[in-house]
Amino acid sequence: MALTDSGEVYAWGYNNCGQVGSGSTANQPTPRRVSSCLQNRVAVSIVCGQTSSLAVVDNGEVYGWGYNGNGQLGLGNNGNQLTPCRLVALQGLCVQQVVSGYAHSLALTDEGLLYAWGANTYGQLGTGNKSNQLSPVQIMTEKERIVEIAACHSTHTSAAKTQSGQVYMWGQCRGQSIILPYLTHFGCTDDVFACFATPSVMWRLLSVDYDDYLTVAQSLKKEFDNPETADLKFCVDGKYIYVHKAVLKIRCEHFRSMFQSHWNEDLKEVIEIDQFSFPVYRSFLEFLYTDNVELPPEDAIGLLDLATSYCENRLKRLCQHIIKRGITVDNAFSLLSAAVRYDAEQQRRFEHF
């Protein structure tokens, strides 16, 4: 399969199970656009299992077609699909990444939630058993936010990386069946497949050509806290954070008002912040550049307080999710204390978990 820069999906080759998505099982000797349900949608990523295909479109929906004997399309049945079919079980979720193993699939949402479905002979779904799943089931619910998932069409192995950098693996690992995610000493998911998969493979494309082209999102992320290009800096706890007024005005209504009115801050080159800690305020500014938040639950409560003050509703939801998923028996009291300290009323209800 191939994905164009305009979001069109093309497929060709062997088609015994409908994996080309042409509506038949006739082999396709030349690239043919996969249409049907994808006709008026913009695909952002594609993956292939051994004889199945999946695509994520720009609104976070997932579509699958091809062989489905083990439920690897996640449609609630095991019938093959000759054209793309939407995974209804993931409705309401915004999927950011999908990966496919030999006969199983994984999906990662924008909130860091992980879902698995399909074949489970080797425990590759991470459900704690070896029963196939015809529909997506959530796994690793007790772990912190997941930021990357990995699988490869030639293996029955799965891997995931958390926001703190922990890498887990499960499934067929050096001939052993691991039915629950196992914490490794690795720093990246590639090492799991290099050391434990059969055969040893790369689960993602490896480019040997250096490409210095950056997307808009990558460029923004690169320029955050860069003193060479910044035209404004915040001073928090005696430490500086370098930013760009234009980015802040575009991304945040609070700053748009600050820099387009008669606020004193509009004339300053350095703005002092004393209401929030350095980690909290830096994470907030970084969120405006990247749309991501990477904070421990204790600091996320402070960021939630900031998001409430600045009326950043998406940031509030991300903080609430981080806090809820980060609660453990060991830190429940400290989180409640932090909630009281920051006057985060909405979070105090989590003490009952």
UniProtKB/TrEMBL annotation:
Q: What residue stretches are annotated with the BTB domain?
A: 230-297
UniProt repeat feature RCC, residue ranges: 7-59, 60-111, 112-163
Chain coiled-coil ranges: none
Question: Is Repeat one of the keywords UniProt gives this record?
Answer: yes
Lineage, top-rank taxon, reads Eukaryota
Q: Which UniProt keywords apply?
A: Repeat
Among its keywords, does the record have Nucleus?
no
Q: What is this protein called?
A: Regulator of chromosome condensation (RCC1) and BTB (POZ) domain containing protein 1
Species name: Takifugu rubripes
> What does UniProt list as this organism's lineage?
Eukaryota, Metazoa, Chordata, Craniata, Vertebrata
- Gene that codes for this? rcbtb1
